[in-house]
């Protein structure tokens, strides 16, 4: 009754497992992550200084533009088409 399954899967035994590979030292990914985090913090500080230098009026315009951009999902507003 299940002869076709035997032909598909055969009667072979599972292959023996190979010896586990020695673990590589995890220092490189940790160092890369730390370097990337440091760079991200530097970029954030630089951009924060630019935003801090804006006047209240310019900051309000920027916030309004960001909200409209999110509401329009990145498309141009209908008035500019």
User: What would you report as the Rg, rounded to the nearest angstrom?
Assistant: 29 Å
**How widely separated are the two ends?**
69 Å
Q: Helices and strands: which structural class?
A: mainly alpha
Helix share of residues? 55-70%
> Count of helices?
3
H/E series, N to C? HHH
* Molecular shape: elongated
Largest β sheet strand count, sense and barrel closure: none
Question: How is the quaternary structure best described?
Answer: single chain
Beta-strand segment tally: 0
Low-confidence stretches: none
Average pLDDT for all residues: 80
Strand content: under 5%
Protein traits:
mainly alpha, 0% strand, 81 residues, elongated, 3 helices
Structure write-up:
The chain is an all-alpha fold and 81 residues long. The protein has a domain at 35-81. Helices cover 60% and strands 0% of the residues. The longest helix has 26 residues, at 27-52. The model has no long low-confidence stretch (mean pLDDT 80).
Could you outline the blueprint of secondary structure elements for this entry?
Elements: H1 3-9, H2 27-52, H3 56-71
What is this entry, summarized?
By secondary structure, the chain is an all-alpha fold.
């Amino acid at each position: 009754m299940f002869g076709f399954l035997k032909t598909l899967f055969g009667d072979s035994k599972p292959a023996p497992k190979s010896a586990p590979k020695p673990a590589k030292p995890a220092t490189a990914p940790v160092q890369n992550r730390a370097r990337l985090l440091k760079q991200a913090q530097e970029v954030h500080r630089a951009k924060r200084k630019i935003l801090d230098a804006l006047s209240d009026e310019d900051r309000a315009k920027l916030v309004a533009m960001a909200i409209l951009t999110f509401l329009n999902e990145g498309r141009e507003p209908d008035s500019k088409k």
